[in-house]
Amino acid sequence: MHCPFCRHSDSRVIDSRTSDDGLSIRRRRQCPECGGRFSTIETASLNVIKRSGVIEPFSREKVMSGVRKACQGRPVTEGDLAVLAQTVEEAVRQTGASQIDTNEIGLAILGPLRALDEVAFLRFASVYQAFDSLEDFESAIAGLRADHADQPDRLRAGEAEPTR
Predict the structure, then answer these.
(1) pLDDT tens digits, residue range 6-59?
(2) Is the pLDDT of residue 159 over 50?
(3) In contact, 29 and 39? CB cutoff 8 Å
(4) pTM higher than 0.85, yes or no?
(5) CB proximity list for 10: less than 8 A, separation 6 or greater
(6) Does residue 151 register a pLDDT over 50?
(7) Which family does the similarity line name (predicted)?
(8) What is the torsional sign of CA 136, 140, 143, 145?
């Protein structure tokens, strides 16, 4: 790390702290040449390999943008989209890979989106998984219905019966 004051090619780390989101580290540094102090923020790089072969940095905003289209007209807030994008990024980073295919990002989006809004999930899945026919939609809907049938109703889940 070059000193921003004298351009000396070395610096010494004085203090390191993780940021609030835990995805970056703030380091306080000192130049051994001029004694100047400065801070750096370090993040692990995560690159996306697009279908065309182009490699670009991962972007939460791109995840939100893609999902936002599927959520048009649905009761989904920008905050919900931000949480979903963060969840997707955390899932992708947990793989430990520094490069990931767009296909894997799409798969990481499907689960949290399904939990957020099933209609938006169907919209996103229909584009992402390239639904070709009505049967593709019917199959996806059948999967959603099967999951609902497997979930116990509210009373069996431990919620108290409403008082009258």
Answers:
(1) 999 999 999 999 876 677 899 999 999 999 999 998 888 899 999 899 999 999
(2) no
(3) yes
(4) no
(5) 1, 3, 31, 32, 33
(6) yes
(7) Belongs to the NrdR family.
(8) negative
Q: Which range is most confident: 54-58, 91-95, 134-138?
A: 54-58
64: which strand partners? none
Instruction: Write the secondary structure of the chain as one string of H (helix), E (strand) and C (coil).
Output: CCCCCCCCCCCEEEEEEECCCCCEEEEEEECCCCCCEEEEEEECCCEEECCCCCEEECCHHHHHHHHHHHCCCCCCCHHHHHHHHHHHHHHHHCCCCCEEEHHHHHHHHHHHHHHHCHHHHHHHHHHHCCCCCHHHHHHHHHHHHHHHHHCCCCCCCCCCCCCC
Tokens of 24: 């970056």
The percentage of the chain sitting over the pLDDT mark of 70, rounded to a whole number, equals: 90
Q: How far apart are CA 161 and CA 30, in angstroms?
A: 63
